[in-house]
Model the fold of this input.
Amino acid sequence: MTKLLPMNRRSFLQTTASGAAAIGFAPSLFSTPAAAQAALTVGFIYVGPKDDYGYNQAHAEGAIVIKAMSGVTVVEEENVPETVDVQKTMESMINLDGASLVFPTSFGYFDPHMLEMAKKYPDVQFRHCGGLWKEGTNPMNTGSYFGYIGQGQYLNGIAAGYTSKSKKIGFVAAKPIPQVLQNINSFLLGARSVDPAITCQVIFTGEWSLAVKEAEATNALIDQGADVITCHVDSPKVVVETAAGRGAFVCGYHANQSPLAPEKYLTGAEWAWGNVYTKFVTEAQAGTPLGNFVRGGLKDGFVKMSPLGPGVSEEARKKFDATLAEMMAGSFSVFKGPIKDNKGGDAVTAGQTFAEDAIELESMAYLVEGVVGSTS
Amino acid sequence: MDEAGIGIWGVPLAIFAGAIRVSTPFIFVSLGESITERSGRINLGLEGTLVFGAMTAYAIAVMSNSPWLGVFAAMATGAVFGLIHGFICKFPKVNDIAIGIAMMQFGLGLAFFLGKPFIQPVAPHLPSIPLGGWSDLPQIQSALNINVLFIIGGLLSVMLWWAFKNTRVGLVLRVVGDSSDAARAMGLNPDSVRLLATAVGGSLAAVGGAYLSLFYPGSWNEGISSGQGLMAVALVIFARWNPIGCFLAALLFGGAGALGPALQSVGVTQGYYLFYAAPYVLTLVILVATSSPTRSLAGAPGALSITK
Done:
């Protein structure tokens, strides 16, 4: 029936939306400085506090890097829930602050929130952290970027493997999604490259941020003899402090947590979003099209390692540096068959090798042999 | 298993240790709420007070380098929150539950706003008493590192239980809570009594918050409580307004909450979401088992708005 009408609901909405966009942009015409072909306002939206020693801090550190670039104004908002609230935040950044490049950094911002805004404001560029963008399906003024941090967890595992005396290491994880499973597996495989007898106990807390449960999980791991702990939760602060308080060593994640436990912090897999944001901003200022699907790992400068702590032995440092060099050369892969899963099946068959950007790794649903834990 | 691990014994140990580690905020909030509810008023805002107390304690401890100063500052702000609640509820036709919800949101929002600069700094922790020196096992030594606030909470519950029964203050509180009219006939002013009871309740709840941020898990962030204040208010009803019951219910909750991580740590890894629901399932089972179709809630203060 809709087809019979001269204007259906969708096209009506589109017309009004572009009208609204035109009105919304009017003020920015007046505020554009004369000598600023490079003036650019960039919006950052975080799901939590930007100084959480974790996921959000990693992004906020990236924002600090581009703040220093000439012509760039950064507007930020923290604690924005993954609801219609984030749409309001984006609209106000676009209309009131004149942002023409927006980075909604949390996974749940993508669909439908960022996609709605991208339709409504076709002249604004949106880049989302998490890697969900699909060509043909999603608008061209949107895109996603993400990093391969699994190799960082492998390096964490090497440091842990040399440091662990009990040959038991622990992982506090939020949810059993492919990205988290890949980190757990990489951590264990890194440790097993040092000593194949090492096992990794994993505890899932079920949520991205549950301070008390994370502390309980860390205590339970240490009670069972784990002496090096790492995690994949939004803010590793509680895990790092609890583990160090119990005398265990820790490997960091997301950002550098060494100030929280200078003696016990071995190393950590950190995001280096500053490089990624610099690239986007440079492209935007130059007027060249921004990438829509941007990925990279250690060698691309998307991921970096925290400086090695005092608990890392000379032997460990050597192997760490050698492996890092291989990774930087692009000739290293963590998932090289044969690898069994922890139920006895084949995870990676003999002769099979996955590069870090292999698409197969993004649907990982297994834990490798040596990990004590279950995905459900 | 290997020497460092303690295998399956980790589960009862974790439940025991969890009961001690996790229960303290529940103890303080529920004791505070039991005082308030005994006076005939419900303060649902204690979740907000708890989080604000956690923030205040952490902030003051960071600035003064004294965790105890943080605890006292938290008590003061908790009392202020209680006084505001009590003062507003004094007016006729004001619903204490609605005000409680408003106060909860206010407390959370204000704590998030003022707590912003204190997420990063590390505050000095409250001291604990190492009672596990007799054991060679580091696991037991760690489990028996008991915080002073836990011990104070335990003593306080016994003291309150005794005071409700045997002191003039306890009697006044109960009279006001059971019947405003009877209290007025005795020459008592129910509003003033409730105002004080809510203030005391608020300051105790804030101590629970101080424990969260200054001892376990021992850091301030905005998700530190994740609803513990609300659960503790429910615990009061569960414990039938009996302070010793509150203490035991808090222990039960703490212990049941430790079950999920502990079972995963010994290799029982299937269905951990179910184990995480254990405290709530337990609450339901006990409530159903102890309910009766023939009598009303034993121990419920008569003037409490849920019983009207």
